[in-house]
């Protein structure tokens, strides 16, 4: 086994007052983030998606295996094909697969099997989880804590896009094997989430919902 090489940590310590200010400002920014289902077709400026993906790729992962792959889809024909396949699965979900309790939980959010945003939004980012990687000699390398790692990377991607002024929606039709076929991804990758990204339409509305306050979402012991 090759010994690990270590380098000095590049970390900027900040004064306490600045730490509190930055934490509060970022909290306020992220509290304004909402899942959007009404998108404008305007393109996202060059470089924004790329930098957000670099941010996502900096996420921690088990044994630093980085078990993710991001496919950025902007081709209209490809987006239309994804919409068609996703809506087929969604119709099955709403008509047969979902329990009564699940449908009742979704009802206040106004969701249904129609997903026009998959074709309207300028960008879809299909996030794939890699169960294993291959080294330079084609030897299979097991990945660790894959769901946790890809989940963290996805959260960082959403935060980076929102910080840049891009609205998002996490879409998870089940099953999502059609994404492997449409996007030519190998069998050892599993679609984790389909992230819709773009500008909200001018008439976009969102459900009036709340989030848990601090004393309900966290405990300090």
Structure write-up:
With 221 residues, the chain is of the alpha+beta class. Helix content is 40%, strand content 16%. It has helices at 16-31, 48-57, 76-97, 100-106, 117-120, 146-164, 177-183, 214-217, and strands spanning 68-73, 123-130, 132-134, 140-142, 167-171, 189-198. The strands form two sheets. It has a four-stranded antiparallel β-sheet with strand order 1-2-6-5, sandwiched between helices. A two-stranded antiparallel sheet has the order 3-4. Strand 3 and strand 4 form a beta hairpin.
Characteristics:
single chain; 221 residues; alpha+beta; four-stranded antiparallel beta sheet; two-stranded antiparallel sheet; 6 strands; globular
Shape: globular
Strand content: 15-25%
Number of helices: 8
Task: Report the order of strands and helices.
Answer: HHEHHHEEEHEHEH
Which strand order does the major sheet show?
1-2-6-5
Task: Give me the secondary-structure category.
Answer: alpha+beta
Low-confidence stretches: none
Radius of gyration: 20 Å
| Helix fraction bin | 40-55%
């Amino acid at each position: 086994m090759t010994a690990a090489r270590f380098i000095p940590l590049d970390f900027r310590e900040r004064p306490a007052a600045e730490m509190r200010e930055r934490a509060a400002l970022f909290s306020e920014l992220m509290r304004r983030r909402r899942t959007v289902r009404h998108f404008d077709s305007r393109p996202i400026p060059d470089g924004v998606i790329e930098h957000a993906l670099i941010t996502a790729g900096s996420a921690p992962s088990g044994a630093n295996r980085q078990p993710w792959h991001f496919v950025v889809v902007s081709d209209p024909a490809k987006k239309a094909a994804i919409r068609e396949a996703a809506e087929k699965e969604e119709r099955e979900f709403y008509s047969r697969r979902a329990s009564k309790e699940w449908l009742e939980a979704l009802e206040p959010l106004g969701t249904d099997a129609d997903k026009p945003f998959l074709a309207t939004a300028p960008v879809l980012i299909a996030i794939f989880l890699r169960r294993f990687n291959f080294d330079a000699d084609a030897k299979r390398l097991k990945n660790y804590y894959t769901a946790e790692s890809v989940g963290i990377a996805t959260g960082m991607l959403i935060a980076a896009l929102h910080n840049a002024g891009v609205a998002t929606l996490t879409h998870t039709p089940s099953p999502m094997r059609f994404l492997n076929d449409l996007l030519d991804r190998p069998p050892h990758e599993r679609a984790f989430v389909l992230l819709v990204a773009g500008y909200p339409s001018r008439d976009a509305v969102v459900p009036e919902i709340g989030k848990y306050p601090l004393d309900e979402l966290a405990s300090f012991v």
